Amino acid sequence: MKISVKYAVTGALSGAANGFFGAGGGLFLVPLLISWCGMEQKRAFATSVAVIFPLCAVSAVIYRLKGGLPIAQAVPYLLGGAAGGVLAGKLFGRVKADWLRRAFGVLILYGGVRAVLLL
Questions:
Q1: CA distance 93 to 96
Q2: pLDDT tens digits for the chain (119 residues)?
Q3: Mind telling me which residue stretches traverse the membrane in this protein (predicted)?
Q4: CA distances (Å), 99 to each of 40, 90, 102, in order?
């Protein structure tokens, strides 16, 4: 399969996850970019951020149009998320890929356990 088709399918899966769950497309995007598209780990993390941002913006607009996005409640999370994004972006080049992978794995496990407990 051509690499551009793989990237498009990977992006579509990430966008679908983002649309269904409100976010979280990166949970699918990073592993797919690494394993299926053969991308180096750090580049996959950075690419995921670049792809997820516009997907989240599109999802936010759709949720807002359908009345499901309370802006006033979202602002504190946005501010905290922006601060975390700036800090992580500055530290990104200093963190080894192995540690990024471990942290990502812990995040996935935590999210999975929380999701199961909420069922």
A1: 8
A2: 677 888 888 888 877 877 777 666 677 788 888 888 889 988 988 888 888 888 778 878 888 888 887 888 888 888 998 898 888 888 877 888 888 778 878 887 887 788 788 76
A3: 20-37, 44-65, 71-92, 99-117
A4: 14, 16, 5
Residue 49: name the closest of 77, 21, 30, 75 by CA.
30
List, in order, residues 6 or more apart from 41 with CB less than 8 Å away: 34, 97, 100, 101
- Residue 110 vs residues 14, 34, 46, 113: alpha-carbon distances, Å: 20, 21, 22, 5
Considering only CA atoms, which of 46, 18, 8 is closest in space to residue 30? 46
Please give the pLDDT value at position 27: 75
Copy the structure tokens of residue 98: 């192995």
Q: Closest Cα partner for 35 from 24, 25, 44?
A: 44
Cα gap 117→110, rounded to integer Å? 11
- Estimate to the nearest angstrom the gap between the alpha carbon of 66 and the chain centroid: 22
Place of tokens 């922006």: 82
